[in-house]
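ARCHIVE CARD
CATEGORY: sequence design from structure
SOURCE FIELD: tokenized fold
FIELD CONTENT:
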């Protein structure tokens, strides 16, 4: 390892975090704080606090006291600050008060984790779990569930909702999620009025705005915001040696900056800047990164692979250290355990392979034995024939070294095992994608980010301050670490100033992604009717934000309207109507522009015709342009469409060139002919010299006698001065009274300003009109589509009601709800067996991670089989629906994807995992995840299908898929 630089972070020692200050509060201030806490600690808060082995923070006390007063609460605090304590107090109130409590989470892994925590606290008989594919004790007084499960209960009017007193919505900032965020708002809006809502959010910049909306739709709501991190976070950059500059772990900020409160534009560590400047001129270097010793003194591969940061070392002169050397440095500095974020699944797996290949080992022999025991116990039910397919042995080898990956492509059981081992301190480094930051309780001492860009599904985009805060929020374990560490690996394009901006701007706004769906529409119309449904939708956070935005736009519009009046007064002319005069000037300018364009197009057309008329051997004169002079046509070229042909010519300076329209802006003329020998070779200098000699001889003979007019310069062309309309406008302008005004140009300047501002003002008014009632307008268009397809109809009183087909749609909550309903209603899946139905459903559920769909995927049973015919009908239904949505200006239902048809059919037919995945790019974890989503939709079909035999087939399909690795439960 390189010698330490002057600003390297010294190795911390694990100890309990404290918050003492050099100058503590005065006795009077301490007494006031005591009185304030005493007021907050009411009877139930005191009872709850006694069950804990730590003191509550002020923000936790404030939120708990508000709950006991009967208020809803919004708690916005950093990751790891202890927000969930407030949710657990709500559960305490429910249990002691004889009411039910629901604890909702955005992901199943978090639900499973919270279920285990609460079972340990209250016992298995009082705690249930509902996650779509797992049901445990669903009628218990405390139930943990995914947010979608609660939404579905609300629409179905489930009796499980009886006696519900509290709902905790963990990670409520998820309502900004583009795909699933609407579910959070639906739950908040539709919960019964007597249910107290506990909303737990990351720190957002508009918590007060969100709290105002919650107050509007839920009643009394207390907003509690804490920006204090219980474990301070330090920022670092890890870099390789650059020339004479030593590499290592550098503080991001200068030594004069408090890393926990850097403020705006903090100064950067000068040693780091010096290293970066050296890097900008650095070239070459091995993939292992200069200045680093190999891990544990052993050799090993250090090349960074295709998944490394954008750009190459050759473009910036910098190359970051290899991953295993970064881990080795963290271990040496005692900064493990760490989560190392790499925004690529392949990158995570590659990093594990690099660390293992380098000989890196982070565990003791005793820890290795413990790890083996835990892994073998957890994976005991996996069939031995599947172990190799799942990569079990390589995964186990890495785990025993304290190294693991964590991403969505892994088998859920493998991910949960990694989480358990990491939380127990047995796995020291986890290479993870950003999904690990979504609420799973895996605190670490350090968080490493390999780069500050990520792939968002369509392009590489920069991390936002909110994403950076979310990712680095895992650093620092409360009660263990004095401080957490956020470490960015040096990479091409890294700018320490930009990084400091990301690190210091910790707040980001919460923006609603709410949008009505077909399922939402039929459920609302069924429950409250269309008009009341519109009113409910207009209470959404999306409309609330839009309306607040309208207030700002309205202020802008009022200001611009006032300015317009001022401009109009300034352009008043005593001679006459100056607006009329400006209209004449504008019309005159437009006519001159039109005539100019027309003349340009005519010249271009003449040049194209001249080029098209050329023949091999024509000797031409080019009067102007970059090819001016004489040239011989070697090849007239093919028809080039609008731009004409591109003939190949030989110039008098013996150069062979392509001639384009741009080369002859004033046209050309043929002045003679020269015979080109059949043996002429344009690549031979001698051939070109002889042919140019023939050209010069011909020019000498014909230059003075050649006739013909140069194309593009016809003397008969009519100029702009011959245009009658132009002449009329010029005369009208000169005759207008304002033309003789001495202040004419001053008035004109004000008139131009008025015209520009008027355009902006009208655009503002259009934006205001578009935002006002925007959610309800989308709902109206959705209802129109549902009426067209007969899911809604008018009753005898003219009210909109749900049809029998609509009753089926009410039970379909999948993203492509209407497409599923159409397939059921039209019976296109009626004749399928269980494997075929599962395969057909996969086309609606599955979406390839990249645009690599096969044009003609193999369909079991052949092109004339039942499954292929059903899929053809499904495609036709989707196409018709797509046209209908386009006509109603609605976002289109996602396209079908056949990429999983064969694999799902094989699995549902009882084939082995090895056979199913053979020949595909699917990871086992991805396959399991998609199968669980297919099971979820099949479960909806068992309730929504109007045909009894389809419901039976769907149940059989569920049983056929839920086996082997797919059946492994996380609880």
């Amino acid at each position: 390892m390189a010698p330490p630089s002057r600003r390297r972070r010294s190795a911390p020692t694990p100890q309990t975090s404290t918050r003492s200050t050099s100058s503590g509060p005065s006795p009077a201030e301490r007494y006031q704080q005591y009185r304030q806490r005493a007021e907050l600690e009411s009877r139930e808060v005191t009872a709850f606090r006694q069950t804990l082995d730590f003191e509550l923070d002020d923000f936790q006390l404030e939120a708990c006291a508000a709950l006991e007063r009967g208020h809803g609460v919004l708690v916005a605090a950093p990751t790891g600050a202890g927000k969930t304590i407030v949710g657990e107090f709500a559960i305490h109130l429910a249990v002691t008060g004889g009411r039910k409590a629901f604890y909702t989470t955005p992901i199943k892994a978090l639900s499973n984790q919270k279920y285990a925590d609460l079972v340990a606290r209250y016992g298995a008989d009082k705690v249930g779990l509902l996650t779509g594919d797992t049901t445990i004790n669903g009628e218990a007084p405390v139930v943990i569930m995914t947010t979608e499960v609660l939404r579905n209960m609300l629409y179905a009017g489930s009796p499980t909702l009886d006696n519900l007193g509290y709902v905790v919505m963990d990670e409520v900032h998820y309502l900004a999620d583009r795909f699933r965020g609407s579910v959070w708002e639906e739950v908040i809006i539709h919960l019964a009025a007597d249910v107290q809502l506990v909303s737990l959010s990351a720190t957002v910049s508009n918590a007060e705005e969100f709290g105002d909306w919650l107050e509007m739709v839920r009643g009394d709501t207390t907003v509690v915001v804490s920006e204090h991190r219980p474990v301070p976070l330090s920022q670092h950059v890890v870099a390789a040696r650059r020339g004479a500059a030593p590499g290592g772990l550098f503080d991001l900020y200068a030594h004069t900056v408090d890393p926990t409160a850097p403020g705006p534009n903090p100064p950067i560590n000068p040693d780091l800047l010096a290293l970066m400047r050296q890097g900008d001129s650095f070239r070459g270097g091995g993939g292992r990164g200069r200045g680093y010793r190999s891990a544990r003194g052993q050799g090993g591969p250090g090349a960074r692979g295709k998944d490394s940061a954008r750009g190459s070392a050759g473009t910036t002169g910098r190359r970051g250290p290899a991953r295993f050397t970064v881990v080795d440095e963290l271990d040496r500095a005692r900064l493990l355990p760490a989560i190392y974020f790499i925004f690529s699944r392949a990158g995570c797996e590659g990093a594990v392979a690099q660390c293992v290949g380098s000989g890196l080992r982070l565990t003791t022999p005793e820890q290795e034995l413990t790890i083996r025991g835990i892994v073998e116990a957890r994976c005991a039910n996996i069939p031995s024939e599947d172990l190799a397919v799942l990569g079990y042995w390589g995964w186990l080898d890495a785990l025993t070294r304290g190294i693991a990956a964590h991403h969505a492509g892994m088998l859920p059981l493998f991910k949960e095992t990694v989480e358990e081992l990491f939380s127990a301190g047995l796995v020291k480094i986890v290479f993870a994608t950003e999904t690990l930051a979504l609420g799973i309780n895996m605190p670490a001492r350090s968080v490493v980010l390999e780069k500050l860009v990520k792939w968002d599904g369509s392009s590489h985009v920069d991390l936002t301050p909110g994403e950076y805060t979310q990712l680095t929020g895992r650093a620092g374990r409360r009660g263990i670490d004095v401080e957490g560490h956020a470490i960015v690996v040096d990479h091409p394009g890294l700018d320490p100033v930009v990084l400091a901006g990301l690190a210091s701007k910790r707040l980001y706004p919460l923006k609603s992604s709410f949008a009505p769906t077909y399922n939402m529409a039929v459920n609302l119309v069924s429950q409250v009717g269309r008009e009341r449904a519109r009113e409910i939708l207009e209470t959404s956070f999306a409309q609330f934000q839009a309306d607040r935005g309208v207030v700002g736009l309205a202020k802008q519009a009022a200001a611009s309207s006032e300015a317009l009046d001022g401009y109009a007064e300034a352009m008043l002319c005593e001679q006459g109507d100056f607006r009329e005069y400006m209209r004449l000037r504008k019309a005159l300018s437009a006519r001159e522009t039109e005539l100019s364009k027309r003349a340009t197009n005519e010249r271009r057309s003449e040049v194209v015709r001249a080029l098209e008329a050329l023949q091999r051997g024509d000797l031409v004169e080019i009067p102007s342009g970059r090819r001016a002079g004489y040239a011989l046509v070697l090849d007239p070229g093919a028809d080039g469409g609008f731009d004409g042909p591109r003939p190949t010519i030989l110039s008098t300076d013996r150069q062979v060139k392509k001639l384009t329209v741009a080369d002859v802006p004033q046209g050309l003329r043929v002045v003679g002919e020269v015979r080109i020998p059949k043996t002429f070779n344009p690549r031979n200098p001698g051939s070109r010299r002889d042919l140019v000699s023939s050209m010069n001889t011909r020019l000498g003979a014909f230059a003075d006698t050649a006739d013909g007019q140069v194309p593009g310069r016809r003397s008969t062309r009519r100029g702009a001065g011959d245009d009658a309309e132009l002449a009329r406008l010029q005369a009208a302008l000169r005759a207008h009274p304002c033309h003789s005004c001495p202040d004419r140009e001053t008035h004109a300047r004000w008139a131009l300003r008025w015209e520009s501002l008027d355009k902006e003002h009208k655009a503002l008014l259009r934006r205001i009109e578009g935002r006002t009632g925007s959610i309800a307008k989308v709902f109206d268009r959705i209802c129109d589509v549902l009426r067209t397809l007969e899911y809604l109809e008018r009753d005898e009183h003219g009210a909109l009601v749900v049809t029998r087909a609509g009753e089926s749609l009410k039970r379909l909550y999948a993203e492509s709800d209407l497409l599923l309903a159409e397939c059921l209603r039209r019976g296109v899946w009626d004749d399928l067996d269980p494997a075929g139905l599962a395969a057909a459903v996969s086309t609606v559920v599955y979406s390839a991670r990249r645009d690599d769909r096969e044009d003609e995927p193999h369909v079991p049973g052949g092109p004339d089989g039942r499954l292929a015919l059903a899929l053809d009908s499904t495609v036709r239904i989707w196409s018709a629906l797509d046209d209908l949505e386009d006509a109603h200006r609605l976002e289109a239902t996602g396209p079908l994807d056949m990429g999983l048809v064969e694999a799902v059919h094989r699995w549902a037919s009882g084939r082995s995992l090895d056979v199913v995945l053979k020949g595909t790019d699917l990871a086992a974890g991805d396959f399991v995840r998609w199968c669980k989503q297919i099971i979820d939709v099949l479960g909806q079909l068992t309730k929504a299908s109007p045909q009894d035999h389809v419901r039976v087939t769907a149940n059989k399909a569920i049983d056929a898929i839920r086996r082997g690795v797919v059946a492994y439960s996380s609880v």
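CARD ANNOTATION: The two ends are 44 Å apart (CA to CA). The first strand starts at residue 72 and ends at 76.
SHELF: design records, drawer C
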